[in-house]
Amino acid sequence: LAKTTQPISMDSYEGQEVNITCSHNNIATNDYITWYQQFPSQGPRFIIQGYKTKVTNEVASLFIPADRKSSTLSLPRVSLSDTAVYYCLVGDVDNFNKFYFGSGTKLNVKP
Amino acid sequence: NAGVTQTPKFRVLKTGQSMTLLCAQDMNHEYMYWYRQDPGMGLRLIHYSVGEGTTAKGEVPDGYNVSRLKKQNFLLGLESAAPSQTSVYFCASWLRALNSPLHFGNGTRLTVT
Questions:
Q1: Chain B residues within 8 A (CB-CB) of chain A?
Q2: What CA–CA distance (Å, rounded) separates B60 from B45?
Q3: Residue B31: closest C-alpha in chain A
Q4: What percent of chain B has pLDDT over 90?
Q5: Fewer C-beta within 10 Å: chain B N or C terminus?
Q6: How far is B47 from chain A (nearest CA, A)?
């Protein structure tokens, strides 16, 4: 499985756009990139998944450059309720069955 | 649908005691997982199962055993609890498909004294 590297923590203010980058230099051809969000005392929940270029849904966008060695989760206009830990996972359907989470990025949104 | 249900929610054990954590899912998912999460850390995979009657080791399997006798249930056992096993335990299930999310339970907080 491709190893991922994320910043340990980030600070932001309400209303700002937040970009969290994940490095995955050893990503394989069949690997997808998936992001999860975890609030305190809860299990993680799925945010978004992508393979290349850009993916957007109702809560976030995922930007993946052509070499796919990194990805950026973009959260538009964050609020206090977006304070959470964000995890980046890399794998394909055949090895997603192991779902290894790293330490994630703790996002602190300030008023 | 209840989704993924974990029991119990809290438990305190003494060193050497045993217990079983139950995870139940009603989504007919083939894949199920047990994770532990320690303060300030990410989730670490203990064991997982790709179907009824099958189990496999994850990152940190030592000190734990699991069973998947029924598709909807995944049990995590601690035969002789140690203080190092104090943690929050999460169970999850997965429908094997792209863009298919992991579904997590609400966790079990275990303290071993």
A1: 4, 31, 33, 35, 41-45, 48, 50, 58-59, 90, 92, 94, 96-99, 101-102, 104-107
A2: 6
A3: A97
A4: 86
A5: N
A6: 9
| Cα angle A105, A34, A86; round to 5 | 20
Beta bridge partners of B104: B92
Nearest to B76 by CA among B11, B27, B26: B11
What token pair was written down for B99?
């863009």
Distances (CA, A) of B104 to A102, B33, B65, B79, B101: 17, 9, 20, 24, 9
Assess contact for B73 and B58: CB atoms under 8 A. no
Distance from CA of A36 to the nearest CA of B (A): 9
B62-105 tens-digit pLDDT: 999 999 999 999 999 999 999 999 999 999 999 988 778 889 99
Cα separation, B80 vs B52, in Å, equals: 26
Q: Kindly tell me the burial class for residue B100, based on how many C-beta atoms sit within 10 Å of its own C-beta (0-12, 13-18, 19 or more).
A: middle
- CA geometry: angle A55, A56, A60, nearest 5 deg: 120
Contact B104 A87 (CB under 8 A): no
Split at pLDDT 50, 70, 90, the class of A97 is low
